[in-house]
Every structure is written in C-alpha cells, then in structure tokens.
Design a protein that fits this description.
The chain is of the alpha+beta class. It is 20% helix and 39% strand.
C-alpha cells in the first residue's frame, strides 16, 4: 500500500514539475522582449496556442492516469477486508489527500489552457471551455461537488456517496458521519370506494373517500461509526405528514450496535421486530412505495424498543432475534408499558443457491444465476390494553380480528365483556426466486390471539387466522422499468378480506435513488388502513395512486 501511495505521490510531483517548467518558460520569453517589441503575427499566436493546447492534452492524459490510480487504490482498500481499521482509515485519507493535491496542481493549468483551445480565428473570437472529468468514489459514483465559489483553483470536490447511506460528510480516526434522506410525494384517489363499512359485529363506519396530494414522509438519517469501526450508530428524524396532529407523527429515534464479528452483532434501541419479511430491514426496497399488501399489514409486528442480535451462521444462512417492550412503541409512553419483557420476534433466512437474495423485493439487480430464499419467522407477545398505540382506532394496532375490530373494544364480544390482556402469536414462512430481472415471492401466515383476560373473558376461545400474499415482478427494461402484480388474503372467523394490486416503477437514473411509482389497487373489506398508506380501513373498491420517491 505504501508503494502505491509513493508511486502516486511521485506522479503528482512529476506533474507539478512539468507545470512549473511551462510557467518558467513562458515567463522567460516574456522577460526577453525589449522595450519596443515587434507585434507577433496571427500565425505565430496560433502556433503558440497549439503548443499550449498540446501541453494541456498531455496534462489531461496524466490527470486521467492519476485519477485511475486513485480509483484503483480505493477499490483495493475496499477489498482488503482483513486489514486493520487504522490502516484502512490512514490509507483512505492518503488517497483523498493525493487527489486534492493533483486537483490543486492540474486544474488551473487545464482550465486556463483549455480556454485557448480554438484553432481558427472564428473559434478564437468565441472561445471554448473543455470540462474537467469528475473524480469518482470507490463505488463508481461521482464525488460530491462542493458549494463554494469557483476561483482560480476551480470548483472544490469532496465527499463520497453510497446508495441508501447517503453522503459521507466526515471521516476521522475517531469516527465518520453519513447523512441520508428519504421522502416521497403521493397523489391518492379513493373516491371510488364504497362510502360505508359494516363490521362482523354490525358496527357501521363512514369512510372518508380521499383525494389529495401529500408529502407523505420525510426521514433524515445519520449513520456511521464512532471510536471503533465495530461500534456503529443509526439515528434518524422521521415524520408521517399525512397523520398531522396524531400521536407519533414526528419521531426522533435510532439504535446503537456493536459487531463482534460477522457471526454476532448486538444492538439496543428502536428496531423493526423481524416477525415477517417486510420488517427484516429491507425498507424502502418494496414493489410499492411504503405500502404493504393488507395480509402483511394485518399480521406483522411493528417497531419497538429493545435489544436485537443478528449475524451469519454460515454462508447463505443468517438470523435475527429481538426482545422488546411490546409490539409497537409508536405513540406509547414508557408509563404505559408493563414491567416485564414478554415480546420477542425471530427470523432465520436461508439463501441456498447464491448465498444472497439481493436487496428487498423484485430483481432490480438482474441476477445472472438463479437466486433463492426460504425463511421462517416466529413472534410472541403478551399485550395489554394500556400499552396499545391507539386503543379505540385501527391505526397501528396489531391485536385485531379479521374484520378489523380491535379486541380491547368494550362490549365487542357481548355485553359486559372487556378484554384487558391477550397473547399474540405469529408464525410466518416465505420463499422466493429471482433470475434475470424476474421475481416470484410469497409468504404464508398463521396468526393466533389467545389467553384473554378481563371482565367476562372466560367465555372467549382462542382466535386463529391464516393468510398469504404473492407478488410477481419483471424488469421490462433493466434497471429502468419494472412491472409488478400482487395479491393477498386473510382467512379468519370474522371475515375473509383480500386485495389485488398492479403497478409500474420507473427508475430514471438506473438506480433506486429516484423512483416514480404508479399503482392500481383493489380492496375488499380491508381490516387495516390509516392516513399514511393508500388503502383505507373497511374499504371496498378501487384506489389509484402515483408517487415520486427519493431514497439516498
């Protein structure tokens, strides 16, 4: 590594010497002119211009070679997984210092000489400015351009970018800092939904048939490591703008993690409970924008505070396990929580053919070899009425019946019956296959509510539900245009709701940073729904939405 840095430094010194010699030669010719110089002819001026242009072209070639060396150095650093943390940081800093030195020495000469590019009188009268090639980071993305003024030294370029981790704004021996943003704007039309919904128990609800535009969500993420590269932080500010005025509309949260090795990492803070595939940590890389199928939404656990362990057992076999306060911490104060830990969620994921399954749903990556996945999840929680985020509304509550009724509603099961505590159990298994942009992915659920406690609950029996979802997608144009279909169903004692959706994703920059999604959704007696998702609680009928998403 020292030899590479020395070679790059020698190249930079050689380039600096050439530049100085050129300036010295020009200065000598200027000083040799007497007090009454003879004006040069047009041909002489053009010949001098040509010589300067040739010098500029040589400098550009050398600059390209040096930039290639820098990129190679960054890529070599990324591959040296066995190098110590301090060596990697120092080498990376040396590479960036070398890049800055090269830019400082070469940019003024290239810019000034490029201004003399014209070879004819007509071209000389208009001028031409040749742009500099932008340096790139180790992942192939252009380096961020600084916002400072452009002076004699040209624009300032600094920082790197990595997908879904944002811009690196600081890197020191004590730690680093990345800032990432997520947001989307959505047009939603629910006007064709039936205006009312009647539950299994005969309760009629009027539906709000929405048509609006919302900047639905804004998330600002701060992530990196501190003091030790194995000690990492992930902190964020999160808003649900469609839920203005409701609990947990604005959240400041995060988690701290320490990775002992690739087999075991442990963290504390707020995490998604890994009870189904969509809460394993693959958000926002779903087929729809921030929207699940209704069976997934009905069955899943949510986000909670707790302790989480994860790691790789062997190649292609990974696990997650979490102990938490309850099924959902959003909108729940610490004073509402019971003084015991009886919530857990676990996931075991096997990817047998390739040892990986890409990022999220769909085959955006375009696997050249068949990628497969098989996973199992188990969740358990003892919940009480007080610890629920919204006891009297369907928003963000996991303990529902298949008609959407909240089990803690007084007199729901009959006069004088009021449930205060219950046990939630969920087993979910999912599988999928991806190949050449095509993906087929499904999940099956077994859900059970039992151990009811409260006034008159001795007459209540356990309530089992089951359900499934299936999604198919295809990259019509690689990394540009994707079509998808999906559907789900819940089979329960209090109803059998289902949904179907078809959509298109357009990725204008051939990555997942910017996406335009358009989706048609049909609901039948949805047991879930709240303002930040396109489906409505109790909804039956078609829904249309179109969404512009930013995730970097």
């Amino acid at each position: 590594m020292n030899q590479v840095a020395l070679r790059a430094s020698s190249s930079a010194g050689f380039l600096f010497a050439i530049t100085c010699c050129c300036n010295f030669a020009i200065g000598q010719s200027s000083s040799s002119i007497g007090p009454n110089p003879t004006p040069p002819t047009t041909d002489e001026v053009l010949r001098k211009v040509d010589r300067l242009v040739q010098q500029n072209e040589q400098l550009e070639i050398q600059n390209h070679e040096l930039m290639d060396q820098i990129v190679s150095m960054r890529q070599a650093l990324a591959r040296q997984s066995d190098a110590t943390a301090s060596d990697a940081v120092e080498a990376n800093a040396a590479a960036r210092a070398l890049q800055s030195a090269i830019a400082a020495e070469t940019q003024p000469q290239i810019i000034n000489a490029s201004f003399l590019k014209p070879r004819s009188r007509s071209e000389a009268s208009t001028g031409s400015l040749k742009s500099m090639p932008r340096p790139v980071a180790s992942d192939g993305m252009p380096l961020a351009s600084g916002g400072g003024a452009q002076g004699e030294d040209g624009p300032t370029n600094w920082g790197t970018y990595k997908t879904n981790q944002g811009f690196k704004v600081a890197e020191t021996k004590q730690g680093d800092l990345n800032i990432s943003l997520y947001s989307y704007g959505r047009y939603l039309n629910q006007k064709a939904l039936e205006p009312t919904y009647t539950s299994y128990f005969g309760v009629t609800t009027n539906l709000q048939q929405r048509q609006d535009f919302q900047l639905n969500k804004v998330q600002i993420k701060f992530l990196g490591w501190m003091m030790d590269q194995r000690f990492r932080y992930f902190l964020y500010a999160w808003t649900s703008n469609a839920s203005q005025g409701e609990g947990a509309q604005v959240v400041l949260a995060g988690n701290l993690n320490y990775a002992f090795n690739k087999h075991f990492a442990i963290g504390a803070g707020i995490f998604s409970l890994p009870g189904v595939r969509s809460v394993e940590g693959n958000f926002p890389f779903w087929l729809g924008v921030d929207s699940r199928l209704i069976a997934d939404e009905y069955m899943r656990p949510s986000y909670s505070s707790g302790v989480k362990a994860s790691g790789m057992i062997t190649k292609g076999l990974i696990y997650q396990s979490m102990i938490a306060n309850n099924l959902s911490t959003l909108g729940v104060a610490a004073a509402q929580l019971p003084n015991y830990f009886q919530t857990t969620a676990n996931a075991l994921v096997w990817m047998p053919t390739t040892g990986e399954f890409g990022t999220g749903f769909g085959d955006f990556e375009g696997h050249e070899h068949v990628a497969t996945r098989l996973a199992g999840h188990f969740s358990y929680s003892k919940e009480n009425k007080q610890s629920q985020p919204g006891t009297d509304s369907p928003d963000n509550t996991q303990l529902r019946l298949s008609d959407g009724s909240i089990i803690f509603t007084p007199n729901l099961f009959g006069p004088g019956i009021a449930v205060s505590d219950a046990v939630y159990k969920l087993f979910a298994t999912d599988g999928g296959i991806k190949y050449h942009g095509y993906a087929l992915e499904g999940e099956f659920y077994l859900h059970r509510l039992s151990n009811f406690q409260g006034t008159g609950t001795s007459v209540l029996r356990p309530n089992p539900d089951r359900g499934y979802q299936l999604q198919a997608s295809a990259m019509v144009l690689p990394q540009t245009l994707q079509g998808y279909l999906g559907g789900s169903e819940i089979i329960g004692n209090y109803g059998r709701p289902w949904d179907f959706r078809a959509g298109v994703n357009y990725f204008p920059y051939k990555n997942r940073v910017v996406r335009w999604n358009t989706e048609f959704l049909y609901l039948y007696r949805s047991p879930v729904g709240y303002p930040s998702v396109p489906f409505a609680f109790g909804g039956t009928g078609p829904i249309f939405s179109t969404t512009l998403e930013l995730a970097f």
